[in-house]
Amino acid sequence: MRKTERTVYFFDMATTSKSKKYGDEYPISVDDAIRIIEMIPSRDRIKSTSKGREILYIPDIQRNGNFISILVNKSDKRIADPVFSDTKNHSRRIIEKEKDEGQDYSSHILLITNQYDPSQSIALVEHCQGLGISTIDAAFNSIIKLAQKQHPQEFTRPDPNGALDNKGNPVTHKVTHAFEFKGHPSKDLQEDIDNGTIRSIELISERNRKDNFDTNSFFEEKYRTISITPIDKNNLRNRIHNAIIRLLRSNKESYNKARIKFKTPQGLERSVVMDAINTSAQQYTKKEKIGNFNAELKGSYEKIHQPIIEKMKELTSESTHDQKPT
Known about the structure:
Layout: E1 6-19, E2 23-25, H1 30-38, E3 46-49, E4 54-64, E5 67-76, E6 83-86, E7 91-94, E8 103-113, E9 120-126, H2 133-150, E10 156-158, E11 172-174, E12 176-183, H3 187-195, E13 197-205, E14 224-228, H4 240-250, E15 257-263, E16 269-274, E17 287-290, H5 306-314
Antiparallel strand pairs: 1-2, 1-9, 1-12, 1-17, 3-4, 4-5, 5-8, 6-7, 8-9, 10-11, 13-14, 13-15, 15-16
Helix pairs in contact: 1-2
């Protein structure tokens, strides 16, 4: 992590709500999901992993209009003591950790809420080695689960059929809320697919699974795939990416995603899983650099560092997060 610049990745973050009784339900809004996390005191927004050797925590959350700034930290006891050297003066200095201390890392996250779909937001994530998006996802989802124990009233809903109990009160059921991050694709993905060599295309369905797939109950079906190939590759030259997107959109009720294996124009073999909007491959997730800070940056913060957030906000000027759905 450099002290004069940062890399910022773009993700699409969605909130979901589910219940055992009804399955997928109308999703909680991003604003309300973060509000539930805020109900937990900052000192208690902690998730321990790796048998206590790694601690994830959210020490600070700030709001400003349709922006929500969040600081996610990781304290890692497994990291070796840092060593600093001065080769000019032939000196070395070791900073030894004390018992129960871990090396700390920070990632600033800027959410831009969507007025047309409150369960969706653009998430700008400051890149930090060892604090990737899967770890950040785990921190968000673990802490909202913690909130479910402390504030159960935020995880109940009236039955959609309007049923009443014997006392005339609405019948309620329990729901769970969750966060999901998906990479916002860069232009490189379209360019590499259009100008590369397609190896294979598979459409993936996670909706039409059989519940009784294994009568012995040892295995369950996770998803189904079908393999497809262009009828006329010459006809799709330089536009196969958009053709796949249109295919996914027109078959969205049957197939959720596509797995594409291809060779880039530079000769690199790639495999990506994508839907009509997002990609799972980090090398194709949109990213930008921010720099020109007035002071050197630290590797970890206790509170949100506003100069980083302000630079991240500058990257949102061309965002299309508030476009009306088509």
